[in-house]
Design brief:
signal, membrane, Osteopetrosis-assoc_TM_1, Osteopetrosis-associated transmembrane protein 1, 319 residues
């Protein structure tokens, strides 16, 4: 019983100082029992850059536009991550480098897991390299970002379309009353060229093999299409115009085919007026009746000529 009580007191002695320090709101690196105390300030600084990147990504999550709005936070975060992986001259109390302590010393490394999530789950999954090229120079802390040419072209065409739209809207983009609806019709007519150029360029890149846009551009284009189709109903107006044109073309085609049919029938009949033949007044063939297949385009003259060439068949004048 005495040994067990001593062990309990010993365990209590190990944890009580930490509890006291926490209650005094002291920093983590003031813990005298922490072997990794000399490395704590680097972890805390890394946490600041990670949290800033997380905050930026969350703020630009609807719609997702991390690449074009958070690239500065991403560069700072990756720069300090690089520095924490090269803390080869700073050691813990057990003589391990702080880089080993932060990334390799324990079964779990929250710093490493968070950094990996920010890199793979946010930056790479958003395909940011398709829109922004970062010339990394981490040893000198001089990494510079630059937008790709296709992203700049898309941005310029987007601004041209938006400038056109602004000319026909008074403050808001939503169609709320009759005046706004009339403005929507003007937008559809006056800004159609800019929209088609924007969408045409986007579609060209989208369908090109091994060439891609980042999620920022894709969501921007999707929102633009929804605005064009669902808010201003430009697609419905274009569909109605196409339907009307299709009806007119179909009607004209039917009229033309009908005219050609009757013209062909008239020409095939030798240009003569047709008369009906009263078969009851024709004498029966002495050799017996037989069926005849008459062409719809055969005229009276053709019938008269065909009967004249047949032997022993009296000729009857038709009326």
């Amino acid at each position: 019983m005495t040994i067990s009580l001593s062990r309990i007191l010993l365990v209590g002695g190990l944890f009580l100082p930490s509890i006291t320090l926490l209650n005094d709101s002291a920093p983590f690196n003031d813990d005298p029992w922490d072997l990794d105390g000399p490395c704590q300030k680097y972890v805390e600084k890394l946490a600041v850059f990670q949290s800033e990147m997380v905050a930026c990504a969350t703020n630009w999550s609807i719609p997702p536009k991390v690449c074009t709005n958070c690239y500065d936070n991403y560069i700072k975060f990756k720069q300090y991550e690089y520095e924490t992986k090269h803390l080869d001259n700073v050691f813990s109390l057990d003589n391990r480098t702080c880089s080993q302590v932060i990334y390799d010393n324990y079964l779990l490394s929250y710093s490493s897991d968070i950094s990996t999530a920010l890199t793979t789950k946010i930056w790479e999954k958003s395909r940011c390299d398709s829109c922004i090229t970062i010339n990394w120079d981490m040893p000198h802390n001089k990494s510079l970002p630059s937008f790709t040419d296709r992203t700049l072209v898309f941005q310029n065409r987007l601004y041209e379309w938006r400038n056109c739209v602004v000319n026909y809207t008074s403050g808001g983009l939503l169609v709320d009353d009759l005046n706004d609806l009339q403005n929507g019709s003007k937008i559809c007519n006056e800004c159609k060229t800019q929209f088609e150029e924007l969408y045409g360029y986007y579609w060209k890149i989208y369908t090109t093999p091994d060439v891609d846009f980042c999620v920022d551009v894709e969501t921007t284009m999707n929102d633009t299409i929804h605005l064009w189709d669902d808010v201003w109903k430009c697609a419905e107006k274009q569909d109605r115009n196409r339907d009307l044109a299709g009806i007119m073309i179909t009607f004209a085609t039917l009229v033309l085919l009908t005219a050609l049919f009757y013209a062909a029938s008239y020409i095939q009949g030798g240009g003569q007026t047709r008369n009906l033949i009263r078969y009851s007044r024709l004498q029966e063939d002495p050799r017996g009746q037989r069926s005849r297949l008459l062409s719809s385009g055969m005229s009276d003259a053709d019938l008269f000529h065909r009967a004249a060439t047949m032997p022993n068949v009296p000729i009857h004048q038709t009326r």
